[in-house]
Amino acid sequence: MGIIRVVSYNIHKGRTATGGRESLEELKLGLYGLSPDLLFLQEVQGRNDQQATLDAQHESLAAVLRMRNAYGCNAVREFTDHGNALLSRYPILHHENEDISDHRLEQRGLLHAVVEIEGRPVHCIVVHLGLFGGGRARQTQALVDRIHRLVPDDEPLLIAGDFNDWNNKLAPIFVKQLGLYEVFSFASMVKGRTGQSFKLRQPMNWLRGWTKQEGSEIHTPQLGVGGNARLTLPPRTFPAAFPFLRLDRIYQRGFAVRTAKVLQGLPWKQISDHAPILTELELP
Question: Which residue in 16, 65, 151, 212 has a CA-CA distance of 20 to 30 Å to 57?
């Protein structure tokens, strides 16, 4: 099985973070250079009746990148709508968008698609959670319920997007209830960095139930290469020009993680208010 390049990116409706200038053309060029196999996109405009160059962004990106696409419309306005999108080099077997809006001022959804990679079904869920902690907790529970209901335990799973979880409080839910791990914890072990790590000799339920809290950020133990685990935090991705907040994630189950990095500097800091995440995965 070859390497699968996965990108998660909040594209800010195709406009720059400052000034609101259109950035869709720069986005197309940047993503083309990355040669992604799976693209988890948030704040994608599916409709813009006032500005044709910003209309159907999932379709125009898919055409340039020669990828298949699925779109989940969440927020509907008079002249526009936006939501999440998945772009895939692999066949998309089916997809569904589940409304998880917590209140009428924030329309949110879970775009759940199943792609076929070398004959195997891989579940891909694009998320963009709310700005308020209580809403995020309820939306995460809806995500957990959906996975327990529709995703078999032995099928690979990717969840990526803008979690708005700046203090990482949701991480233990993904570890304990879903057996999911954030890709940067694996990548740091692959690179051989030192840090707080330990050999996994205890039962998995003990590992999943153990967390350490420093200030307002929760460090969750993650499995690494060779059965290692380490205390880790997701990367800083917002704002793109000077990343400070840890908002964006890629969680995985069933893959080997080869690399993971945040794309910083030009052109990324001029395209959106978020920095994209790139990881290279392999199905065993």
Answer: 151
